[in-house]
Each structure stands twice: as structure tokens, then as C-alpha cells.
Write a structure and sequence with these properties.
The complex is a heterodimer of chains A (178) and B (414). Chain A is α/β, with parallel strands linked by helices and 178 residues long. Chain A has helices spanning 6-17, 50-60, 121-131, and strands spanning 21-31, 36-45, 65-73, 77-86, 95-104, 109-111, 134-136. Chain A starts with 5 loop residues before the first helix and ends in a 42-residue tail after the last strand. With 414 residues, chain B is of the alpha+beta class. Chain B has two domains: 10-47 and 354-413, no CATH class; 51-208 and 293-348, Cytochrome-c3 Hydrogenase, chain B (Orthogonal Bundle). Chain B has helices spanning 51-57, 63-69, 78-91, 97-125, 129-150, 173-196, 198-204, 212-218, 222-226, 234-237, 254-257, 264-288, 300-309, 347-350, 354-358, 366-371, 398-413; strands spanning 10-15, 27-33, 36-43, 159-160, 163-164, 312-320, 323-331, 340-344, 382-387, 392-397. In chain B, a hairpin with an 8-residue loop joins strand 7 and strand 8 (340-344). The radius of gyration of chain B is 23 Å and the shape is globular. The two termini of chain B are 28 Å apart. The chains are: A alpha/beta (178), B alpha+beta (414). The interface between A and B is large, with 47 and 51 residues.
């Protein structure tokens, strides 16, 4: 396996994705006494090329490690970040890779990546129930953390009208409601 | 086997959400065929406490350190560790070099205590309570050191954004060394007890096997993946804290035995060797620790002000005793709370391995196979055995299940 520099990785994404590549940012930070570099690459891609970007990551590293999908409600759209790491298993070579996709609120859909990375199933199920993004083609459609009697169409991480309702919050004893 | 009129009925056994063999409340639905487990399903969420929501709606960035510390009672260093690194990356704060070494020492002390705690529990799961008492007695020494250095046995409150809150002084070092020497002196004995005992070998060899390829595909982390031969360790792979200055190698079982099986026995080997590795790391850190300040910004009010103005995002990853912990943080200028906070603990991906570990095994092996990934323990409840065919429910207490396991050990011994 050839180890590329962060800039070379970004360039390879640019060539592979073409117009669907939005932007990128390389963050480097010197660590401790020997000043080894902690490195993160942030990539922003269009949804059309999302699957292709994940396939490209699979080419850089045979089994890329998907740590988690984080999601945020940014008003008009929902942003998902897939936190990957590549080049693990070698001393101080690992690079974190944050793959960012923005989804418009009126079309919250993202293809599943469980066919490429089977371990993504838990975090995809969590993304589905918590922020209301439909993961198209997910092999297991059930909820992960939310109880079965939790109302449909309410997503705890949303800040709009589909977020948790006022009456769902419990005020602790001795505290006044806001 | 299914000959004639005799037909096998398949049973579903739900274990949990609260159960002695499960550290975290989680429900396992086991479909069994006779004694053999044919399918496993996991139901989570019984202790979803909405911690991330609190971090985004109630607490400021400094208060969140103490909230992060309370995510887990056993590994309460790794969460604030990953959290402060994420905030430091987002806000552009660089901790002083001495603080990096102190962080590493505390994190490794935690690893020793956590692995010994696990060793005791694993022994208890197979009904070997003598070793359980032994392991927990031995663990007291490191707990004393943690209290000596940080002022507390758990929830140590050592971390601050841009450094640590307490220094390790010259006078403290001899006492720390004394504890390290104690562990080195008993290490061979521990190895003999855990790796050469006939009962432990019988109950853990070829039980709960996870193959290397499966571990890679599912993104398993920590000692669970290393026991399957994947040399993945955040301390080795990613430069963070003082680990970046040391030459750390991920521990795999072939270092001791020459082969990788990926069973419970291999997980014992990895954790045992990691105790020794932790001792070595602490010794190196004490020797190489540079002098200097321990905080980038000693005044909390000033720090809070900087954090309020900070804009950006960061990821912090740390190797907890159970595997990789990752915190993602996004900060917005002018906002007191975090704009986004995502926490992922190592048990989250490791639970994906549970169906593989349990399938094909026996019910009596459930406690030890489940405990072998070291998921974070809760207390006794019950197990309901449902006979699908006649829809009859019978109740097995958690104690019954543990007794099944103990009984198996006794039978093997005879």
C-alpha cells in the first residue's frame, strides 16, 4: 500500500470526483516534543459523488476505518460528516479524513455504504433515527437507540419543527421550567 | 438430528437490558437450537442519557469536560482526553509539552486499572472467584496511585482545555515508581495465573472467535481487534499527546504465542501484555518529561472568553482501555455552548462483533464471550426464556445464567 501525503490525497479526490468536489481543508498540528504531525483532511463533496468518494477511500486503504457519522441541523440543510481514518497500523502514519455532505431539508436522502463497509450499520441506523436522514438501501431499517414507543417523525437532533417538542422535556424536581 | 417425529423447537432468549453479564444495559436476543446459539440480535438505548444534547444546549466548553468525564465510570480519562483534544483543535490552543506527558501518564494508569478490573470480571464470569479477588486486590495499588496523583480514585478532573489541572511533582515520582515496580514484580505471576491455569484455558481457548477479516470489515477497535491480529492502536497510529514521542507498537497475541486465533484467550493475552506496555510507557514518560508550565492559559475566565470567540471544528481521538474513543466538536463564535458535539465510545463498534462471537457457541459461554470485548457492567436482572412454539415464558434469573457458566467450568474440571 502506497502512502500518499495529505495534499496528494486531496488531489486524487479532485481527479476522481471532478465537478462534484466542493472544497477541502488540511489541518496539521505539531504534537509534543518531537513535533510529529497530527493530520486531518476535511473534504466536502456533492451528494451525487458521495458513494464514489467512499469507493475512492476504499482504494486508498483496503478496509478504511469508519469511526462515526456526525450530523448537524444547519437550518436549510442537514450536514453529515463521515469520520474515516486511513493508513492505520503503521507508526504515526494515520490520517483522519472527514467526508462532508450537505443534504437539502426537502430531500434528506443518502445512499448506504454498508455494502462497502459493513461496520457502518449502527451509525447509519443512528443517523436515520436521530436526524431524520433516510439511508437508502440500508439492510436493517430498525431504530438503534430510541425506544419503540418514541413518536414517529420526531428527530432529537433537529432544531426545526421536527425536533423534540416542549412537552417531551422533563423538568427536574426543584427546577422551574424555562 | 431431526429424525422421526422428534422435532427441535427453536428458542429465543432475551438477555438484559440489565444483566450481570452485560456491563452496559443492553438487550441481547439469542435464538437457540438446543444448547447452540444460532442467531443474535442487539437492542440498545436503555441508558441513552442525552449527554451530547446537554453539551450543545446547557453547558459551556469547560463544563463539558466534567460531563464528558461522567460518560463512563471506568474509563473517565479517555473521554475528557478526546474531548479536550477536539476543542483544542477547533480553537487552535496548543497544550504545553509537560501537560502532554502528564496526560499520557494518567491515561496509562487508567489502562492498568481497567485491564485488571476486566481480568477480575472475566474470571468471575467463568466462576473462578479466587482469581477475581486476586485481580481486584492487585488493582488496589494502581487505584492508590491514581488517588495519590490526581486526588481521586475515579472522576479525576485532571483535564483542562490547553493542559492539565495538576502537576506531577518530583516528590511524587518515587511513590509512582514503587507501584510500577510492584506490578513488574508480580507480572510473571499474573501471566502464570491467567495464561497457564487449566480452567481458564479450557473455558477461553477457541471460544468467541473473531477472525481478522471480520474485525477489519466491522471496524472493531481496541484489544478486541488486536487479539484478532489487527495491529490497530490509536497510540501507535496517530500522533497525539506524548505517545507521539514514544515508540509504541500495537500488541497482538502472536507476540507471545506466535499465532493469532482471535478467541477469548487471545484477548486475555493482549490485555495482559498491555499492562506491561502501560508500565513501560509511564516509566519512559517520567524519564523524558520536560519541565515547564502545565496550562496554556491558567486563568479559566480568560480561557472561557477565548473559547467563546472560537470558530472551527476539531476531532479528538484517544485509545481508551477498550479501544478508540472519538469526539467531534464544532464551535461557533459568540455561542457559549458547543454548536455540535458527537461522542463515540469503543463499545459502539465492538458490539457489532457480538453476534459473531456468540454464534455457534453455547449459552454457558455467553457471559465470558460477551465480557471478552469488555463492554462497560451493570447489575442483576432476569432472563426470560420464550418458547416460540407454545408461546410460554419461563424466567431464568441472571444468577441462573451465571450458574450455568460455573457449572460448565466444574464439569470441565472433573
Amino acid at each position: 500500500m502506497e502512502i500518499l501525503s495529505p495534499q496528494a490525497i486531496v488531489d486524487s479526490f479532485k481527479t476522481a470526483l471532478g465537478d462534484n468536489f466542493i472544497d477541502s481543508n488540511i489541518y496539521e498540528q505539531e504534537v509534543a516534543v518531537k513535533k510529529s504531525l497530527f493530520r486531518i483532511i476535511w473534504l466536502h463533496v456533492k451528494r451525487e459523488a458521495f458513494k464514489k468518494a467512499v469507493e475512492h477511500i476504499c482504494q486508498l486503504q483496503e478496509y478504511p476505518h469508519l469511526a462515526i457519522i456526525s450530523s448537524a441541523d444547519l437550518g436549510d440543510n442537514v450536514e453529515l460528516i463521515y469520520h474515516f481514518t486511513i493508513y492505520y497500523g503503521q507508526h504515526l502514519q494515520e490520517i483522519s479524513l472527514g467526508l462532508r455532505v450537505s443534504l437539502p431539508k426537502n430531500d434528506l436522502k443518502i445512499p448506504t455504504i454498508t455494502d462497502l463497509i459493513p461496520g457502518a450499520i449502527f451509525t447509519e441506523r443512528e443517523t436515520q433515527e436521530m436526524i431524520g436522514v433516510e439511508v437508502v438501501g440500508i439492510p436493517d431499517n430498525r431504530r438503534l437507540f430510541l425506544p419503540e414507543d418514541f413518536p414517529e417523525g420526531v428527530y432529537p437532533w433537529r432544531t426545526d419543527e421536527t425536533g423534540p417538542k416542549e412537552d417531551m422535556f422533563r423538568v427536574l424536581p426543584g427546577r422551574k421550567p424555562k | 438430528m431431526t429424525t422421526g417425529e422428534m422435532k427441535k423447537a427453536s428458542y429465543t432468549i432475551p438477555i438484559g437490558p440489565i444483566h450481570p453479564a452485560l456491563k452496559e444495559p443492553v438487550r441481547l436476543d439469542l435464538t437457540i437450537d438446543g444448547e447452540e446459539i444460532v442467531d443474535v440480535d442487539i437492542a440498545l438505548g436503555q441508558v441513552h442519557r442525552g449527554i451530547e444534547w446537554l453539551g450543545m444546549n446547557r453547558n459551556n466548553a469547560i463544563q463539558n469536560i466534567y460531563l464528558a468525564e461522567r460518560i463512563c465510570g471506568i474509563c473517565n480519562i479517555c473521554h475528557p482526553f478526546a474531548y479536550v483534544m477536539a476543542v483544542e483543535h477547533a480553537a487552535g490552543i496548543i497544550p504545553p509539552e509537560r501537560a502532554e506527558y502528564i496526560r499520557t501518564i494518567i491515561a496509562e494508569l487508567e489502562r492498568i486499572h481497567s485491564h485488571l478490573l476486566w481480568a477480575g470480571i472475566a474470571a468471575h464470569e467463568i466462576g473462578f472467584d479466587t482469581i477475581f479477588y486476586l485481580a481486584w486486590r492487585v488493582r488496589e495499588e494502581v487505584m492508590d496511585i491514581i488517588e495519590y496523583v490526581t486526588g481521586n480514585r475515579i472522576t479525576k478532573a485532571m483535564f483542562q482545555i490547553g493542559g492539565v489541572r495538576r502537576d506531577i511533582t518530583e516528590e511524587q515520582i518515587p511513590r509512582i515508581r514503587q507501584a510500577l515496580d510492584y506490578y513488574l514484580s508480580i507480572f510473571d505471576k499474573l501471566g502464570e495465573v491467567f495464561l497457564k491455569d487449566k480452567t481458564i484455558i479450557m473455558r477461553t481457548k477457541n471460544v468467541g472467535i473473531l477472525k481478522e477479516e471480520e474485525a477489519l470489515k466491522l471496524g472493531i477497535v481496541g484489544p478486541t481487534t488486536r487479539a484478532s491480529g489487527v495491529a490497530k492502536d490509536v497510540r501507535q497510529d496517530q500522533p497525539y499527546s506524548a505517545y507521539a514521542d514514544l515508540d509504541i507498537k500495537a500488541i497482538t497475541p502472536d507476540m507471545l504465542t506466535g499465532t493469532v486465533v482471535g478467541d477469548v484467550y487471545d484477548r486475555i493475552i493482549v490485555r495482559l501484555l498491555e499492562i506491561k506496555q502501560a508500565i513501560e510507557i509511564i516509566e519512559q514518560c517520567i524519564e523524558q518529561m520536560p519541565s515547564g508550565p502545565i496550562l496554556a492559559e491558567p486563568k479559566p475566565a480568560k480561557l472561557l472568553n477565548t473559547l467563546k470567540k472560537a470558530e472551527g471544528e476539531g476531532v479528538g481521538r484517544a485509545e481508551a482501555p477498550r479501544g478508540e474513543v472519538i469526539h467531534y466538536v464544532r464551535m461557533e463564535a459568540g455561542r457559549e455552548t458547543l454548536a455540535n458535539w458527537k461522542v463515540r465510545a469503543p463499545t459502539y463498534p465492538n458490539l457489532l462483533a457480538i453476534p459473531i462471537l456468540l454464534k455457534g457457541g453455547q449459552i454457558a459461554d455467553v457471559p465470558i464471550a460477551f465480557a471478552s470485548i469488555d463492554p462497560c457492567f451493570s447489575c442483576t436482572n432476569r432472563v426470560v426464556v420464550v418458547d416460540r412454539k407454545i408461546n410460554k415464558k419461563s424466567l431464568l434469573t441472571g444468577r441462573d445464567l451465571l450458574e450455568l457458566s460455573i457449572e460448565k467450568t466444574r464439569k470441565l474440571k472433573c
